[in-house]
Amino acid sequence: MTEKDNAANPQPEELIDQTEQTTTEDGGDAQNGQEDMQVSENQDDSTELRQQLEELKDKYMRMYAEFDNYKRRAVREKLDWMKSAAQDTVSALLPVLDDFDRAKKFAEGQQESGWSDGVELVYQKIYSVLRQKGVEPMESNGEPFDPELHEAITEIPAPTEDLKGKVVDTLEKGYRLNDKIIRHAKVVVGK
Asked: Where are the alpha helices (DSSP H) in 110-156?
């Protein structure tokens, strides 16, 4: 074969050499392309991971805040419960205090007092113990009528102009336990 024939019909070894050269040249570009793809994929993965991390941090902070709020609310409710735990007992004692008030008022109107110093001492002691526990009587006479504080039993014509819409008389005192109304005052309102 002549050289023209050899160039036109290359030998199989020459074909393999040419193919390897082409593959090597193309492979370098292919490897760079693969490396570029891997870098961009890694960047995408790291961006996704950062987003997931931020979402998890946000969820954690929200859950922590919710739990902290729950603890505070539970403590506050427990304190409120402890403050008003004796409410039933105090409410049961209020009629006894009313009777004491009536007896004292009656004894003050009598010439010969049936109200002894011992009874006065017991009266003062009961009131002081209840004040220590947070019970306070509400003053109503002369105050403007407030349906949140007072229970109107009846309305009467006001004896004076300045008592219109105000409490004229208190039939039964109202009481608070730690600033919570445990009994509304029963009053007569001037109209």
From this structure: 117-132
Region 84-190: CATH code: 2.30.22.10
The domain segmentation of the chain, as residue ranges, is 11-82, 84-190
Sign of CA dihedral 89, 186, 131, 177: positive
**What's the predicted TM-score (pTM) here?**
0.55
Specify whether the CB–CB gap between 174 and 138 falls below 8 A: yes
| CA–CA separation, 84 and 131 (whole Å) | 14
How far apart are alpha carbons 157 and 168 in whole angstroms?
Answer: 10
* CA 58 vs CA 34, 40, 46: distances in Å: 36, 27, 18
Q: What is the pLDDT of residues 76-128, one digit of tens each?
A: 998 888 777 778 888 888 888 888 888 887 777 766 666 677 788 888 888 88
Task: Provide the H-helix boundaries in 133-183.
Answer: none
Q: Which long-range contacts (CB under 8 A, 24 or more apart) does 75-82 make?
A: none
